[in-house]
């Protein structure tokens, strides 16, 4: 069986690329196709595979400004020749699922979210676009939206990384999806030593790419008001603005190595998570280190954080709501047991993901070859079938 893995771009090792890495381990002979490839920023596991890029990779400044070429990516995908492959796995968040496959091949789409640029985040991207690009965006995105809807029919089976995303897939594509949560390397935290007090040395932690929708500003404003210490790990376009608004108790440390980040997790009192995420790997990493999470009660965090066991929630993206949550957390901090939190996080481990994904794809390849057309959803608003362990 020949396997192709299609990913939107390979320019760093974030959540989507961790999925690709696990897929590479599951299918060691697979070939990878992508729009843009920066091998120096990609793990050895992925680099060990043959990687083919679209013509986007050869355009001026594509390695830094690849997102500017978004309108050309549908055309670029359709130029890829995947006729030799029996199984095609597309990793969708940017344009990836629109490839043309052989009629008898199985095309499985692992969807992190329907393209944020054209659906859930469209108005945010439009408002933040520069004056030269903004007038062109409505027409270009309208065409891309039409293409994205049409290419959903090229997928035989959808897998969503969370129930939140499964619901978006139904809303946008009217397609049902199986839910398999993405891989998190929970075992790596077993060797990380926490401070003598078991963690919680007095400061809170915020970990994220610093872009607008992650809402780091809410955390910084809340901790400025409370006068409590907050360590912010991450870099991005918002870094300078957030640095300016940070008070004396808020420290922005920028990029950290994996080992440094692990130590930050182990040493913090709790992780603060303010984003409405598709899934959210950061809270699971914090829980794998035995630390509780104070999370927005929306999106993927509602599927990973167990209220009262591994953390607690706040309902609104406001500093006031976060301040209230921190005060509630401190009033009941002793009830959060690091060992119980680690056990809870283990259900999202990388090995669990690989086992569930392999079982699911094998069943489709071996038992349902004659009926690859997707099943109709039984009801509007379907949230997918859960395949993560209870």
Automatic annotation (TrEMBL):
A Pfam family that the UniProt record links to this protein: Glyco_transf_4
Residue span, Glycosyl transferase family domain: 204-333
Top-level taxon of the source organism: Bacteria
Domain Glycosyltransferase subfamily 4-like N-terminal: 14-188
Entry protein name: Glycosyltransferase
Organism (species): Azospirillum endophyticum
Lineage, top ranks: Bacteria, Pseudomonadati, Pseudomonadota, Alphaproteobacteria, Rhodospirillales
């Amino acid at each position: 069986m020949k396997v192709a893995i299609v990913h939107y771009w390979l320019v760093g090792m974030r959540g989507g690329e961790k999925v690709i890495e696990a897929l590479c381990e599951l299918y060691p002979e697979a070939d990878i196709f992508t729009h843009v490839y920066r091998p120096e920023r990609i793990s050895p596991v992925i680099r060990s595979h043959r990687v083919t890029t679209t013509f986007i990779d050869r355009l001026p400044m594509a390695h830094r400004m690849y997102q500017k070429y978004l309108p050309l990516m549908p055309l670029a995908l359709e130029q890829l020749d995947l006729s030799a492959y029996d199984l095609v796995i597309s990793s969708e968040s940017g344009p990836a699922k629109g490839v043309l496959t052989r009629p008898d091949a199985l095309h499985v789409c692992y969807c992190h979210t329907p393209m944020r640029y054209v659906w859930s985040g469209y108005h945010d991207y439009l408002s933040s676009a520069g004056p030269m690009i903004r007038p062109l965006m409505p027409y270009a995105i309208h065409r891309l939206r039409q293409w994205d809807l049409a290419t959903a029919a090229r997928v035989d089976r959808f897998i969503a990384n969370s129930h939140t995303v499964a619901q978006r897939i139904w809303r946008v594509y009217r397609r049902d999806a199986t839910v398999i949560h993405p891989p998190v390397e929970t075992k790596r935290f077993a060797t990380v030593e926490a401070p003598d007090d078991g963690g919680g040395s007095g400061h809170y932690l915020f970990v994220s790419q610093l872009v607008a929708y992650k809402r780091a500003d809410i955390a910084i404003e809340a901790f400025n008001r409370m006068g409590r210490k907050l360590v912010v790990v991450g870099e991005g376009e918002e870094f300078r603005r957030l640095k300016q608004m940070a008070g004396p108790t808020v420290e922005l440390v920028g990029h950290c190595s994996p080992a440094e980040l692990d130590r930050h997790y182990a040493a913090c009192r709790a992780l603060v998570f303010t984003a409405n995420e598709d899934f959210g790997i950061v809270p699971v990493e914090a829980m794998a280190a035995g630390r509780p999470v104070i999370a927005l009660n929306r999106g993927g965090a509602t599927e990973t954080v167990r209220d009262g066991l591994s953390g607690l929630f706040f309902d609104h993206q406001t500093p006031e709501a976060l301040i209230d949550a921190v005060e509630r957390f401190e009033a009941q901090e002793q009830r959060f047991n690091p060992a119980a939190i680690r056990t809870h996080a283990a259900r999202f481990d990388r090995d669990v993901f690989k086992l569930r994904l392999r079982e699911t794809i094998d069943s489709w390849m071996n038992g349902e070859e004659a009926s690859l057309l997707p099943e109709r959803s039984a009801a509007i608003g379907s949230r997918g079938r859960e395949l993560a362990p209870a």
